[in-house]
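SAMPLE LOG
Freezer: B-3
Tube label: C17
Construct: single chain, 322 aa
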Amino acid sequence: MSDFDNNPFADPVNDNPFHDPSVTQVTNSTLDPVDGFNPFPTDSQATHTEPASTFPYQPAVLQPSTEPSPQAIAAAAQANLLRQQEELERKAAELERREQELQSRGVTGKENNWPPLPRNFPIKPCFYQDFSEEIPLEHQRLCKMLYYLWMFHCVTLFLNLLACLAYFTTDPAYGVDFGLSILWLILFAPCSFICWYRPVYKAFKSDSSFSFFFFFFVFFCQVVVFIIQSVGIPKWGNSGWIASLTIIRANKAVGAIMMVVATFFTVCAVLSVILLKMVHSHYRHTGASFQKAQQEFSQGVLSNKTFQSAAATAVSSTAQGN
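STRUCTURE (predicted):
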């Protein structure tokens, strides 16, 4: 009801914006706002500012470009060529070294370890042999026995040489036996290893029918040679039973040495017959056959590079002749 008592024509107090305390404080102030701003402050009123750069201004100068002389270009190119040539020679030497290592390792990719020769020896090993790694467990014992037979045969051939030398000292007429004993040692020791031991090693390793048949053929001939050596026919270079019994009447010491060698040859003959039967028994259990041997032989011959080159040469020569 108090609102009806107010004068409607009086100035409204509550709605006047200039009655706000912040506005009245500014309007009642005696300081001119413009006078409060000093564009040129004194040292005490001045704020801290960063000094301008003290480096003097220098104009950009374009350096003159100097082109290299032809002699310098040729010298740089020659040095680059020499460096590339040295790099190529180094790579060629590295490739040659790796090729020699691969050749020494053979087809298996492993370093050859037989015969066991010193590293500084001029002749390097020719074969890789490891019974526990390459030969199946059921064939390892028999394969080792054949290897020991070959070693025993080599020792017997060496003793045969010494016995024939003693035989030759008692009677110069038996010099032919001494000469033949040297030949048998040089010939039979490596040939027996390559011709019948390595084939049976490969046969047990890869179950090769062709290697089995090759071993049977060569080892049968080796058995015959053992029997002939144990018999000891005079003038054949063997200290067998006939030769030892002949010389024991004239010289008992030499006769005894030759009888020992004859015993060794007899042991070789007996062991060879036993091992031949054992290998044949293992061969029958492996499933090898003559048909497989023929197939392996034909595949090996046709895949041989030497045979292929010889066949190509023969065909070309025939074509040119026609």
